[in-house]
Amino acid sequence: MRKNISFKLFMVTVFFFLLFIVTQLILQSLFFERYFIWRKTTEFETKLKKFEFQYYNYVDDWSKAIGLINEFEKNEDSKIVVLENDGTMSYITKYYDEKNDITKINDVKEIITKWRNDSNNAYNLKTATDIITYTVNNKNYDFKHLVCVSSIKKNGIQVKTIFAITPLNEVSDTIETLSDFYMYFYIVAFVISLILSIIYSRMVSRPLRKVTKTAKKMSRLDFSEKCEVTSQDEIGRLAETLNFLSANLELALNSLKKSNKKLKIDIEKEKKIEKMRREFIASISHELKTPITLIEGYAEGFKDGIFEDEEKDYYIDVILDEARKMEVMVADMLQLSKYESGNIELHIEEFDIIPLINKIIKKMSTSQVNDKKLNLITDFYEKEILVKADIQRIEGVINNFFTNAIRHTQQDGNIYVNIKDDKSRIFIEVENEGSFIPEEEKNKIWNKFYKIDKSGNKKFGGTGLGLAIVKNILELHKSTFGVENTEKGVKFYFSLDK
Ligand SMILES: Nc1ncnc2c1ncn2[C@@H]1O[C@H](COP(=O)(O)OP(=O)(O)OP(=O)(O)O)[C@@H](O)[C@H]1O
Ligand SMILES: [Mg+2]
């Protein structure tokens, strides 16, 4: 059996309705007949008193008395019997339907005989100030007779006794009719109350079911559905509160999710920084080991005096060279670690890129370029090209591309510097003749400490930090950059916003 609210409401309604019917039936069977008889009695007594009052004046005038009696009997559907003091029935009417009258007269006679047989009655009547009323069960009928006995007194002496007898058949008739009526009434009322109870239990349970459905979704942290109950009653207010709760929960949950996401990102960032720090320490100790060992070895050589005088200058130069390299490496690494920790802010400004490139070319055109007899070929002639970038950091980028190009170009080779215009940005390309970069290395060269020639060959020098720094700077500028193998050699390029 479903234990839902509609069912409960329905059951309660049916229960109260049945209780009402049962109570009604009990009250009816207990009190209805009594009440009816009581009402009939009081009415009959009042009428009889009125009759007696009139009859009193005609006690000795029979012709007038008969008219009065006939009228009373007809109006009240009763029989009047006048009994003389000696016990003779001085009057009993006969009219119309003789057969019916005879049975009535027989009933009356029987009642009077019974009255007379009880000697107390006569005494009671003598002392009574009012009418004596009682009911008689008659074995021939299934109804009672109401009997009123009263004495007519003259000068305080009883002269006649009057019996007024009326059948109470209408009581049982009325009760029977009423029971019949109530049976139909109860059936109809029961059906109506059933239908009503179903309707109103649904009226209550339907919005509740809607609210429950939303609440269930909420319990699964799904706040997509809102209660659509719009009534102004308690259920409406419950739905409103639930909607309010749902909105608040969703808000709280979203903000919690957001903070959680941020926390995760922070933790990830922290982990990454920690990893970088470890890698940094590992790399730096590895990279610094070689020059330190070299410096240490040569310094000990000096101490032990194993070098010839003419060799001493060479070894001092080596020591100085290694120490300078270490200095550069440490500076590069510090710069790189700054970029990687994300604590760098760019100072973006608009400037002309041409003078910057020319400045770098001029600087480079000294030692190495001259030594190798390299040709620096540019495709731009003094025209102004404005870009928006951090000038100092872009100088670092171009510097690095140039140093690499110079390093990897063979004797008498060419280095090309081109600037290309592309709608909202410009591309700067540094191309050098020389060996290609294998396809699978193209991505790796941007990693720190990555060098294609892993033999530690002194030919190219460098620590593999240059392009890693360049990558960080260009990413901060949201630049498009990369490397390509060309017909002549290798081309590095990057874009800058105009
Ligand atoms: N123009 C180029 N031609 C050929 N290979 C290059 C060129 N530029 C860079 N590479 C390769 O990419 C590697 C990484 O370059 P990167 O600039 O990061 O380091 P590096 O030049 O060796 O050292 P650093 O720049 O720190 O002095 C180089 O070791 C080299 O193998
Ligand atoms: Mg380099």
TrEMBL record:
GO MF terms held by the record: phosphoprotein phosphatase activity; phosphorelay sensor kinase activity
Compartment(s): Membrane
Transmembrane regions: 7-27, 181-200
Reaction catalysis annotation: ATP + protein L-histidine = ADP + protein N-phospho-L-histidine
Domain HAMP as annotated: residue spans: 202-254
EC number per UniProt: 2.7.13.3
SMART domains assigned: HAMP, HATPase_c, HisKA
Alphabetized Pfam families for the sequence: HAMP, HATPase_c, HisKA
Residues of the Histidine kinase domain: 283-498
UniProt superkingdom: Bacteria
UniProt-listed GO biological process terms: cellular response to phosphate starvation
Coiled coil: 246-273
Main location: membrane
The keyword Ion transport belongs to this UniProt entry's keyword annotation: no
Record keywords, A-Z: Coiled coil, Kinase, Membrane, Phosphoprotein, Transferase, Transmembrane, Transmembrane helix, Two-component regulatory system
GO CC, any one term: plasma membrane
Matching PANTHER family: HISTIDINE KINASE, PHOSPHATE REGULON SENSOR PROTEIN PHOR
Entry protein name: histidine kinase
